[in-house]
Design goal:
With 259 residues, this protein is an alpha/beta fold. Helices cover 61% and strands 8% of the residues.
Length: 259
């Protein structure tokens, strides 16, 4: 599987850009979202075990944009086999993730651990297990869920050849680094706060605290991008103050370079 991940701080516009890309694909664009990839795999089993016409799919609500849960329910029974075969490849990310949440309170640890496991298992490991051939583009990556990797955290593994192999095996094939200035990020985050489209912790912050969060988030994203570049991962950088059309052109050219 060719895995390409968006990297960027909160409220820079990744979701809007990702959705624009999805809606404006042309016939020759063979890449998929993780939801689409799961549905494509699940259909293999339905064709054999339970053939469903398009009319039947509509009747029973099995539509690509809305029913990733259906695909997950089909693939759920393969989860353990997939982890057994492919899980070790991603042990490094799990180790870094647990280092990241070590200082969190117990309930937060449970929530983050569950989120990380589902993201890693259903978005990455299962797709690799079933050898999906299409490039898969991730709006949010397992790398991002680690809370921002410091370059030194991964570089230190180079001292141990075994850990170096883990890095090379588990890194994405490409990243799309969504960059923006702190002032512009602040304006967007502030707007989301006013609309109530953020988590509760952001709603409670004043302007100064929001700006600090923006600066910290942008630095995290830069750390991730720098680390991936250091590891030889292909990358494309987009200025999130530019139009969706402009950035989508850059990203599409980047994605097409993989096939």
């Amino acid at each position: 599987m060719i895995r390409i991940e968006f990297v960027g701080s909160s409220a820079v516009g990744k979701t809007a850009l990702f959705n624009y890309l999805l809606k404006n694909r042309v016939k020759n664009d063979i890449w998929l979202s993780p939801d689409e990839a799961r549905i494509k795999i699940a259909k293999r089993f339905c064709n054999v075990l339970l053939p469903i016409s398009r009319r039947g799919m509509i009747k029973y609500g099995i539509l690509p944009k809305e029913h990733s849960k259906w695909a997950i329910s089909i693939l759920e029974s393969y989860k353990n086999a997939a982890i057994e075969e492919k899980g070790e490849k991603y042990s490094l990310w799990a180790e870094l993730f647990y280092d990241y949440i070590n200082k969190k309170d117990t309930i937060k640890k449970l929530f983050l651990s569950d989120m990380f496991f589902k993201k890693l298992c259903y978005d990455v490991i299962l797709l690799e297990y079933f050898e999906i051939q299409n490039p898969v583009i991730f709006e949010e990556s397992i790398t991002t869920l680690n809370g921002g990797l410091k370059k030194s955290a991964l570089m230190s593994y180079n001292d141990d050849p075994r850990e170096s192999i883990k890095i090379k095996k588990s890194r994405p094939d490409g990243i799309i680094y969504c960059n923006i200035e702190p002032d512009d990020n602040f304006k967007r985050l502030k707007q989301k706060v006013q609309q109530g489209n953020v988590n509760y912790s952001n709603i409670r912050l004043n302007d100064e605290q929001l700006m600090k969060r923006c600066i910290g988030g942008l630095q995290m994203a830069k750390n991730i991008a720098d680390t991936m570049k250091y590891l030889g991962v292909k990358n494309a950088e987009v200025d999130m103050t530019k139009s969706l059309k402009t950035n989508s052109f850059i990203i599409n050219e980047f994605i097409r370079s993989f096939y």
